[in-house]
Amino acid sequence: KFPKPLNYSTMKFSMLAIAAAALSAGVNGFAVNQVPAARTFAVRQSTMLKATEVETDKMAALATAANEARGLAMDSIAAAHSGHMGLPLGAAEIGASLYGSQMTYNAKDPQWMNRDRFILSAGHGSMFLYSWLNLAGFDLPMEEVKNFRQHHSMTPGHPEFPNSEHNTPGIECTTGPLGQGVANAVGFAVSEKMAAAKYNTEEHTIFDHHIYALAGDGCFQEGVSAEAAAFAAHEKLDNLIVLYDANEVTLDKMAEYTQSEDILKRYESYGWEVYDIDGHDLAVVEETIAAAKASDNGKPKFIKCNTIIGKGMEETEGTNAAHGEAGVPYVDAAKKNIGLPDGEKWYVSEGTRDFFGDVQAKNEAVYNEWQATYKAWSEANPDMAKELEAAIADEVMSAEEMIAAIPELESGAEATRVSGYKAIQEISKLVPNYISGSADLHGSTRNYIDGGGNFGAGFDKSYEGKNLYFGIREHAMGSILNGIAYHGIFKASGSTFLVFVDYFRPTVRVAGLAELNRVSWILTHDSIGVGEDGPTHQPVETVSGLRVFPNVDVYRPGDAEETVAAFVSSVTRKEGPTALIFSRQNMDQNDALPAAERRAGALKGAYIAKKETEDLDTIVIATGSEVQHALKAAADKPGVRVVSMPCMEAYERQSDEYKEEVLPSSCTKRVAMEAGVSGLWYKYASKVVGVDRFGFSAPGDTVMSELGMTAENLSSVLESLS
Q: Which terminus of the chain faces fewer neighbouring Cβ atoms within 10 Å, N or C?
């Protein structure tokens, strides 16, 4: 019934093509002798061919839509004199099949929770996506298609997840950095599996959708896609379908110049089900995607769609010149060549609009049936329904309420990674859709959720588990976490040593850009205090490197109660993601100040940890493990105030009055202290006690002492300012 993996799908003639030939010959061409038995066969054959005729009409409509989508892309890129024409023209049949037949969605309700998701990993081909969203009836007007890549348009150069800058219905994911979308799609698939396991019941299925990603050569050359592909196969994410736009072209050269692998064998070795098809044969594309959807065999699906880049533009098709806007001078001729009306810009036929009206009606019928199922499910499971609806709406208690609900930790001297372990247990109770994972470091990063179970397939794992084991795949972990956040149900965190955040730094940047408040990172072993492992594992520049990202909060708490506040902020913040920076080594608690005050102050990013007892003379600003040193150094100095600043970004969002209260402008004698590079601290202080060099291998206390991270050294600096 369906195409088989690999070579079967490359057959040149599909059953639909044969049926179309039969139609052209007429039914009687198959009924030679009109004997009773033959007449009975002819009636059955006639019924079959009528059904096939409908299917043939559908194929013709899809082919027409594919060419009109090509025309939209050509016109918009020509108008902008900017953009990438190759993919929208080369993958048009794939778009026609997905949006015109295979995907289930409701263009009138683009946030429907059980819609199929489509991710354009090759984000440079964004006009592919904008063309199909317009044709499929999403609220993306033709004026916005014409406004491609212009200021404040709904059609930016690369697809952007709805945020404060853009809100384009139907965009599921911010893509552009190649390979990220493939790995994001794995995160979507994780989230769908988890939602199905958590919320489906024997009587009602409310989650059963598929995740589609379209990617090109560049996506598969980037290592992040390989990491994610291995994870997806290992955890048997068979709800994931990746389509490879295999046009044998990269930007500089033909792809053979830089790659010679057999990608089908590579993905098959991971454990994927693989197909190899003609990406321009609509019938085969249709059959193959349908087969991939129907195959619940525990294998994600990889469909190599052999295509011609820039198809339809003879001057550039099949060459690396087709990638960008080099084809602009040939647009009018190319449109005429593929059968579009001469001289008419942004042409869409009434037939195509009618066809997609029928597609919408079909999808709405599925949608309405699902709504009835959901209503019955929610009536039968009111508590689950309330939890799910709150998760989708991102409704959690306020930070202040959550702070009050978490008992005081009453810790002695301990590492903030240990405090974090205590805090994450409480967060998991208060935020039911909170999940966490680690890149093979749960035992060190201490972010395992007790009693939460482990996510995945086999061993002691299930798809309902709250703890994810990513293996030693930091880059994929970052992208998968983003994908979970984009999917819009779970809040996800992932952990590794701070120094290894550079492995997934690109995903942190995109999370900030996309305003993904549902994602956070738990980054431990935060400084030269790591000690014996030496400078390869002692981050000095890394915290500042995270702080320079716009819209990313970076918390480096100074004790257990500040750690609670940091965790609370990470799950209650609405504007973007949070990095939680925790220590390996023990640190003292500031028990001189009540826990409630430390928590409240940390939520504001900075607060007075020790107030002067005489006229204010000097302010010491410290963060993380250096707060304890600041408190000791100032203990016998009545004119010195200590300010703990666990989060610069949160502090900067406070009112001018609050900031003046904490750091009065009248006091210019200020010293900052952190076991890391000093540069950013000069915004707040005229003198910085920092570490502007790499560390060395020795016990942590020795490294700290040798590089000046002690109360004694800070006290000497303060005395030198007197």
A: N
pLDDT tens figures, 90-116: 999 999 999 999 999 999 999 999 999
Percent of the chain beyond pLDDT 90? 89
Confidence of residue 52 (pLDDT cuts 50, 70, 90): low
Residues with catalytic function: 474
Cα torsion through 549, 554, 556, 560, rounded to 10: -170
Residue 101: CB atoms within 10 A of its CB come to 18
Q: Give how far the C-alpha of residue 421 lies from the chain's centroid of Cα atoms, to the nearest Å.
A: 25
Q: Tell me the C-alpha distance between 539 and 675, whole Å.
A: 9
Residue 573 has φ and ψ, to the nearest 5°, of: -65, 140
Mind giving me the DSSP string for 353-390?
HHHHHHHHHHHHHHHHHHHHHHHHHHHH-HHHHHHHHH
- Tokens coding 133: 């969203």
Q: Give the model confidence (pLDDT) of 641-651 as tens digits.
A: 999 999 999 99
Tokens of 373: 């199922």
- Cα torsion 314, 315, 318, 324 to 10°: value is -120
Output the CA torsion sign for 163, 397, 430, 109. negative
Cα–Cα dist 487/184, whole Å: 9
DSSP string covering 417-476, please?
HHHHHHHHHHHHHH-TTEEEEESS-HHHH----TTS-EESSSTTEETT-SEEE--S-HHH
Distances (CA, A) of 456 to 435, 462, 465, 518, 700: 13, 5, 7, 21, 37
Cβ atoms 699, 531 nearer than 8 A: yes
Note the pLDDT tens digit of each residue in 464-522.
999 999 999 999 999 999 999 999 999 999 999 999 999 999 999 999 999 999 999 99
Rounded Cα distance, 676 and 704, in Å? 11
* Digit-coded pLDDT (tens) for 364-386: 999 999 999 999 999 999 999 99
Q: Return d(Cα 605, Cα 603) in angstroms, integer.
A: 5
| Cα gap 76→81, rounded to integer Å | 8
Q: Does the predicted TM-score (pTM) go above 0.70?
A: yes
Instruction: Enumerate residues 6+ apart whose C-beta is below 8 A from 579.
Output: 501, 508, 520, 521, 523, 546, 552, 553, 554, 555
**According to the model, what pLDDT value does residue 55 have?**
77
Structure tokens at 659: 């900031």
pLDDT, average across residues 380-407: 98
One-letter amino acid identity for 346?
A: W
Measured distance CA(225)–CA(476) in Å, rounded: 7
* Angle in degrees, 0-180, between the axes of helices 15-25 and 36-80, rounded to the nearest 10: 110
What's the pLDDT band for 19 if we cut at 50, 70, 90?
A: very low
